[in-house]
Task: structure prediction
Amino acid sequence: MNTIVAVDRNWGIGKDNKLLVSIPADMKFFRQETIGKVVVMGRKTLESFPGGMPLAGRTNIVLTRNEEYRVKGAQIVHSRQQLLEELERYPSRDIYVIGGDSVYKMMLPFCDTAYVTKIDFAYEADSFFPDLDQMEEWEIAASSEEQTYFDLEYAFVRYERKM
Result:
């Protein structure tokens, strides 16, 4: 299973249910990685998308405690156990956990690859991704050259769980 995220210098991922910054190359990378795959998210992440609609061209699985919650084009699950049972239907390599922070933290132990866009700037954030650099079970497997978007520097980093 994979996870995909953009983080700032402090592993911040968002504020007020919005991304900290939108970098076109990061959005393109996200789209390329996840198109035709399974994306796993929490309700608030889904609601942060344009029109609160699921991502096109992907199987959208949304985790929420609200038993009444329904959204066209998404599968809704209500617990970690129910989510894990649903995910058994798909090849692990085709599953991407896409947020928010509580879903990332819950599902990280089940992931073996993390695609992290590391942005060299510290934003004001209220949600965070676990700092993989401080977790001995994770190591950097690949890293792109540093790239820039206006004056913002960032890199695409692939982490893998140590076996």
User: Anything to note?
Assistant: Helices lie at 24-34, 43-48, 80-87, 101-107. The chain has a mean pLDDT of 97. The first strand starts at residue 2 and ends at 7.
